[in-house]
Design a protein that fits this description.
globular; 23% strand; alpha/beta; 333 residues; Metallo-beta-lactamase, Chain A; 2 domains; 8-stranded mixed β-sheet
Length: 333
Amino acid sequence: MSAPVEGPSGAAGEAQAKARTSSFRLRAVPLGTSAGRPTVARGASALAIVAEGAWVLCDCGEGAQVAALRAGLAFSRLDAVLITHLHGDHFNGLPGLLGTLGLEGRERPLTVAGPRGIASLLEALARAGSLGVGGLPVRIVELEGEGGTLEFPREAPAAFAVETRALAHRVPTFGYRVSLPDRPGTLDVEGAVAAGVPRGPLLAELKEGRPVVLPDGRRLDGSRFLGPVRRGPSVAYALDTTPCRAAVELGRGADLLVHESTYEHARAELAHARGHSTGVEAARVALEASAGTLLLTHFSPSVDGERVADEARAIHPRVVAAADQQGLDVTPP
C-alpha cells in the first residue's frame, strides 16, 4: 500500500475546500453502539456523520461497512475515516472497508486519520497480503500531541471541517469535531431590490456576501443586505475516554455531543480503571460544554442503555441513548 503519512496542522491554514453539499444540516447515524465487542443488538463502535452528498465515518469497528450499507450510505461519497484509537472494537473493520473500496475501483483519495501507529499497522497488513486496496489512494494522517485541524488534500476536497483533540484513555486516543462551514445570513431581498439590484443573478451574488456592480455602475457591498452569519451544524465525538477537559473543548457549543457511557454511575470506579466514563459523567461534560443534545453510546453489554440515559437526564436536559441505525438530524438552533 502506498500512502503518504502526514501530521495534523495546528493552525487552520487555508479555509476548507468548498463544500459539496447544498443542505445545511447533518445527520448522525450510529452504526455500532456496543463497547468491547458486538452483541446481537449492538455492533462494534462506528458512527456516520452525513451531509447531503458526503459523509465521514467515526471509528470502524467490526461490521461497520455492513451497517453502513444497511443505512443506505454510498461508499463513493465517503470523505474520511476518523479512528479514535487502535483498540480492535474501533479499528478492526477498517481493513475490510478499504478492501471494498479497492474492489470497487475508487480513484478519489480517501483520508484516514488516527493516532500514531495506524500507518505501520495498515502497511503490515498490506505486506501480508491482507489489505487489497488496489489503486485506491489512501492518505493517512497520524495524530499526535494535543491534536489540531485536520486538513484535506486539494485533490479531494471535503464537505466538512474537522478538529481533533487528545482524550484520556489507556492508549493514545483522539476525539473529533465535525462541522459544516458557516453560511452567510438571510438576504434582505426587498431591501436589495429597493437599492436598485435587479432580480436575478445579482441577487444570488449578494446572497453569498459578494459585492456587485449594478447596471448604472454603482458598486454595492453584499454584506449590508445580509443578516447574521448562520453557524454551521457540528457534531463532537468523544470515544473512549474518562471525563476530561479535551472532551469539553470538543463539545463546546456543539449541536450534538456523542460521548461514551460504558457503565452506569454505580460502577464509576470500574469505568475509570478501564479508561471509560459513565452516562452521568458524559452529561456533566455536555452541560459544561453547553452542547445541544447528548448522544450516549459505547454501552457495555452488561448495561441497559436507556437506564444509563435516565441517570444522565438528571444532569442534562437533552439526552438520547444511541441505538444502531437510529439516526438523529443535527441543525443549529
